[in-house]
Amino acid sequence: MTRVHQAACLIIFIFSIWVGVEAIHMNYYTSLGPGPGFFPFWLALFMILMCIIWFIQLWLKPLKGKAMDAVPDRAGLLRVAALIASTAVFGLLVEHLGFSLLMFAFLLFLLYALGRQTLFVTLTVSIFGSFGVYYVFTKYLNVHLPECPISFLRILGF
Virtual CA dihedral for 57, 40, 131, 103, nearest 10 degrees? Predict the structure, then answer.
């Protein structure tokens, strides 16, 4: 079991180094404040530090169990596949359907697929996570997010 975790730790460590190197090529600071490289740089450093701590923990106190214990069951694999597929679909369609409408559908699907929330919680998170985030980002933060191409929905603020 420890080898599986060490391998995962190494993969995350290498990915973190890649993120950090890519962040160095971005502007760290601009005249307006932190630039596009600020957050990924510090996130990469944090992830590298967490990987080092995790690896030391695994080295000092190996985990018991078999490697197959780390493999999720069929339901878990389906949830992971649903997450990856829905994220890919979101990325492909967001420019064509608009942020708020697609994010609403994305959150609704994910919360339903994970299946641990009530209908009230699912709807509340989906509404505020899509339309609320769109409103805050476009009105207060002046961040452009893709608009809905359907004219009557755009008039309603979607």
Answer: -70
How is residue 34 annotated by DSSP? E
pLDDT in tens, 19-70: 999 999 988 887 777 888 888 999 999 999 999 999 999 888 877 766 566 6
pTM of model > 0.90: no
| Structure letter (DSSP) for residue 28 | S
Q: How far apart are CA 115 and CA 70, in angstroms?
A: 22
Strand partners, 30: 33
- For residue 41, give both structure tokens: 């740089």
Q: Which of 68, 18, 63, 64 is nearest to 43 (CA)?
A: 18
| Helix/strand/coil for 33 | strand
